[in-house]
Amino acid sequence: MGFNIKLKTTADGKGHDPRIIMLNGKKVRVLGIRRLTPTECARLQTIPDWYDWEGMSDTQRYRVLGNGWTCSIICHFLSFLPKDWFENPELCNRSE
Question: How far is CA 28 from CA 6, 8, 9, 47, in A?
Fold first, then answer.
């Protein structure tokens, strides 16, 4: 069972809504993609709900969360390093 989908990306001046698609010959309204809230973004970065973002606007929070690294991901990356890498200072200070 296949679907025949036709997308209309721009209004053509004849009253056609670009958010309407044709799915097997029937008009279907596309609601779009919902933007994540700053709280949802923080949860994806494993920041606890009790953390206080005092004095920070939503825009600043999006920027901080988008540029941040999740701690569990960093731990995963570091788990692939040899154990002696952390004990040997010469390995940590390579200038290569």
Answer: 10, 11, 14, 38
C-alpha span between 34 and 63 (Å, rounded): 18
**Token couple for 37:** 């809230």
- pTM of the full structure: 0.49
The b-or-e profile of 33-55 (16+ CB within 10 A means b, else e) is eeeeebeebbeeeebeeeeeeee
Q: Where are the domains of the chain?
A: 1-33, 38-92
Comparing CA positions, the residue from 54, 36, 35 lying closest to residue 45 is 36
pLDDT per residue as tens digits for the range 15-55: 555 566 667 777 776 666 678 899 999 998 888 899 999 99
Band of the pLDDT at 58, cuts 50, 70, 90?
very high
Distance, CA of 88 to CA of 71 (rounded, Å): 23
